[in-house]
Structure formats: C-alpha cells, structure tokens
Amino acid sequence: MIPPDFIDELLERTDIVEIVGQRVTLKKAGKDYTGLCPFHNEKSPSFSVSADKQFYYCFGCQASGTALKFIMEFDRLDFIAAVELLAGRVGMEVPRSDHVEAPERTEHRKSIYQILEQVATWYKEQLRHHASRERAVGYLKQRGLSGEVARDFGLGFAPPGWDNLYTALAKSNHERDLLIESGMVIVNDDGEKEHDRFRDRIMFPIRDIRGRVIAFGGRIIGDDKPKYLNSPETPVFHKGRELYGLYEARHHNRRLEQLMVVEGYMDVVALAQHEISYCVATLGTATSEAHVDRLFRLVPKLVFCFDGDDAGRNAAWKALTMTLPHMKDGRSARFLFLPDGEDPDSLVRKEGKAKFEARIAEAPRLEDVFYEKLGAEADTTSLEGKSAVAKLAMPLIAMIPEGVFRQLMLQQLSTLTGLAEDKLMEVWRPGRGEMPVASQRPVGTPARQTQSELVSPAIAMLLRSPDLAAQFDAAVYARLSVLDECDLLLRMVSAISAGEIDSPALLLASFQDTPDFSQLRRLAEQEALLDVGDLPEEYAGIINRLISKLEFASIQELRSQLVAKPFGELTESERDMLRSLSKEARPRR
Asked: Are the C-beta atoms of 292 and 336 separated by less than 8 Å?
C-alpha cells in the first residue's frame, strides 16, 4: 500500500498544467487553460484545466480529476505505475506501507502551511507599522520599489530583536513546534531558548506553484553578513527544485512565453517594478537540470542573466551544460551578460524597460555561447586545435535530444573542424557511426561492465569524500560517458550533484536499493590507504588519465579510418590531418 499522505504530498508538488500540457495543446483563458478534450472527439474545446484548483474538467463528457487520474486515463496506466511516473518527475521515492497514517501527516502539513501564512502576514504588518519600519521602507524606496510591487510579492520586514516573531505567534506549544519545524524559529543547543531565524531583514515570501507560502528569503538591511539568508529544508520546502517568483510570473502573465533566470530576489522584484514580470531566481543554488526541466515545461524560451566577468561566464557555462539535455526542437535559450559593475536592478533603472528588453532580444543564443567557449579553449585555425574542439564538443552535443537542433549543432561543428558529420560520429562512437541518445540509465539498472582498476579507486574516493566530484564540471564527466567502465562513477557524480550530497553515508544510502549497493559497500569498507588531504590530487589524476585514455582511443580510431582510405582519395586537409594524427597516436603514460 502506498500511504495516502504520500499521494497528497505528490499532488502538492505536481503541477497539473505541466502534466496535461505535455499531452494536450492548451491555451490560456483567464486563470485557466483550455483545449480539445483527449477523452472524446470534439471540434470546439470544452476541456478545462485549473491551475489554482489543480483539477481538470470536460464540459462535454464530464471527465474530471487530478493530475494522477489524468495520467491513469490518458497514459492508460494502473494506479501504482501512474504514481511512480509522477514521483519520478519530482524526485520523490515511492514508499510502501502496511498501515495508514495519512490523516495525521496531511493535517500536520496543512498546519505548517497555515503557520507560514501567519508569519507572512505578520512580516507585512511590521513593514507597515513597526517602530523600526522606516529603515526598511527607506531601503525599498531607494531601490525604486512601489507599494504595489511590494504588495504583489508580499514583501515584509523582520524587525531587529531576538524573539519578536516567536513572542507574537507562539501562543501555545503546538505553535512553538510549528514555528521551529517550519524553520522560522531556532532553538539553542540545550533546547531551552528560542530565537527568530530572521532579524532586521527585508522578507521575501517564497511561494509554491499553487501560491502557498513555503519558505522565506531575507535580505539584510545594511552591510552585515550574510547578505541573503534562506529558510532551511522543511517538510514543505525543498530548495533544489523551487524558484522564487515563478508563481508571481505565472499569475501576472496570462500567456507566458519566456522566463529569465536571474541571481537574486531583489532582481526579480526590481525587474517586475519595470514591468519585466517574467523573471525567476534560484534559491541560493546554481541552476540545475531540475530547474531547467521545470521551466521548459512551462515556456519554450529561457534567458539566463549573468555578470559579464569570468565568474559570470563560468556560471553561464555550467547553466548551459544543464540546459543541453533539455534542448528539444522548438525550445531556445539565450545568455544575457551584463556590463561590468551592473546588476539587473541597476541596469533596468538606468536604461528602462525598452532598452533592457532589447538587450534580452539580442543576447547570444546557446549555440553562439557554446562555440565561442570551445573556440576559446583551442586554436581552431590549427589541425590540433580543430581536433581538440571536436573532442570537447562531441560529448556535449550527444547530450542534446535527437532532432533538428542537435543536427544543426553537429553541422556547425563539421564546418568548424573540416570533418564530415559521419566522421565526427564515427570518432564519437567507434565502429557504430551513430550518436548516443542523451539519457541516463535508470536507477536500479546494473552497470554494463565491471569497473576497471582505474575507476574503482575513484569510486572509493567519492564514497569517502563526495565533494571531490565538484573538481570537474558536467562537460568533463559528459566526455567520459562513452566509456562503459565509467558508468557507475558517473551515476554517483550525478547523484551527488542532483541531491547536493556532502555526506558519505547519504551517498551510500542513495544506492541502497540498487544492484550496485553490495559493491559500493565493499569499497566503502576497504581500508583507506590515503590521507583525506591526498584525495583531491589522486581523484583529479584518475579523471585526467581517463580523459587521456578516451582521447587516445579517438585519435587511433580517426587515424585508422584515414589510413584505410586510398591515399589518392584523401583531400589535402585529410592528408595534413593524417600526418598530425600519426604524431599524436602514441600511448600517453
């Protein structure tokens, strides 16, 4: 039995508009969405989906229900399969239970939502009436915000002092416990003294897709640290998948076609002040695949906004690699780099809406940033440089879903390197002449091949220190995906990144129900021969040797293809490349 409280939480995390919109063409109609009913033949749309009620209804055939029922009816799945499909989308693991505890847990979650709503109301009251409000109001006015925008985003004020919120709302032990569990109040180590988490800060309520307050972000007034403080993870808040401003953007725009990802809460609000109301911000984390997947399910166009310095461009590259697996045909991504010393708030105040949106429209597209970055990595005027670009680009292009966009990216690489597309594909997949489908092996599928003596130590190191994975970005790991021996290693890296895992125990536990668990446990229990301080260098050395192994195999394959071709049929460019590859085709130690 799947506990009913799990079903309730699953439906709370699932957006029915996203689910139905993947299967039925919907158009915005006021607050709701309409389309042709998929359950009976009709020429005029009578099928309605409510984002607020998370419910669908057909006025023609009276079909109705939640996202779960829709999946069961449309995809023709039984209850268990439909639950597993929805759970997989939002990163939840389906539990099994012999007893039911649903009513208590469901009511408890409702209580957390209610206390957070009370907190949001209290913060708003402080912004209007507290004796220290002038500092907060002055700051907001200095940033150019109107009362209407502050109202739309529910901005508030956490006044200075240790226990203002606690004193105001903790009228009973039950309310005290809810304030602690919701992350709004902190208890000291001896469990006897409570104090407010947020003090002397502008407060930004974070809402879920249904508009419920699930957490807060607080911006300090003045120069104290940290500048921004977020709610901790709670039963209703999981920062790795939520986006600040998403509810407001959808609520404000009836026909949302584009979303822009910016850095912070204030950027979202300040841009909305200038009627650029389609912006969202991640919650203290880098843009993840989960974020990109969620946004692309809502709109076909994304814009990522970054500083124009090296740090901003590095962040853009990471966001780009997260975006590649979701670049289906019909989708687009742009990267807006801001002038030095500017952020979205300052720039839109200086230039105004029209000029800022002109920057967005002219921002480089994903493919431009992609090849500009690779071109900076190697000299594309030389044969060695072209070879290096091909080696860097092919694993990344392989991440793109099959379709016209991936084919065009491949054509551009062919033009840049002078290698025909079929040759590029043969180098990538020796002897097959095809690109791999950009997908990850489902959890529970065993590795295709036992790890080599080179890979097993790397896995053991990750089991001791998961943060080692951060030494290399997604592009490097993507290149290793062609090596079967790296299968488990790459799945571990993916698990570390997706779950923000920093504990060896959590990493091992994440594979507990997979066929790989026994092997991982044996590796984890092996005697450690290296000091923790030596692990980063050793791990980096293994990854670099694997990359060298891959490059050497690619060089050999390309050289063998050119050698097999009659010399008289080789073009001058191919002859030059053959001479160059013959020098490189020596094993690297």
From this structure: no
Per-residue pLDDT reduced to its tens digit, 335-352: 999 998 898 989 999 999
Strands of 141-200, DSSP E: 156-158, 185-187, 194-196
| Contact status, residue 184 vs residue 165, Cβ threshold 8 Å | yes
For the domain made up of 102-230, give the CATH fold.
DNA primase DNAg catalytic core, N-terminal domain (3.90.980)
pLDDT tens sequence across 103-127:
677 788 889 999 999 999 999 999 9
Q: What is the CA radius of gyration of the chain?
A: 27
Residue 140's SS3 state is helix
On whether the CB atoms of residues 422 and 410 are closer than 8 A, the answer is no
| C-alpha closest to that of 261 among 246, 239, 241 | 246
pLDDT of 100 reads: 47
Asked if pLDDT for residue 82 goes beyond 90, the answer is: no
Q: Which DSSP category does 431 fall into? A: T
CATH architecture designation of domain 246-364: 3-Layer(aba) Sandwich (3.40)
Q: May I ask the CATH class of domain 4-90? A: alpha beta
pTM: 0.64
pLDDT-based confidence at 164, cuts 50/70/90? very high
**pLDDT of res. 20:** 93
User: How many alpha carbons fall within 13 Å on the CB side of residue 48?
Assistant: 13
Residue-by-residue DSSP string for 346-364: HHHHHH-HHHHHHHHHHSP
Q: Give yes or no for a cis peptide into 446 (omega within 30° of 0).
A: no
Q: Are strands 194-196 and 201-207 parallel, antiparallel or unpaired?
A: unpaired
Q: What is the pLDDT of residue 566?
A: 60
CB 86 within 8 A of CB 119: no
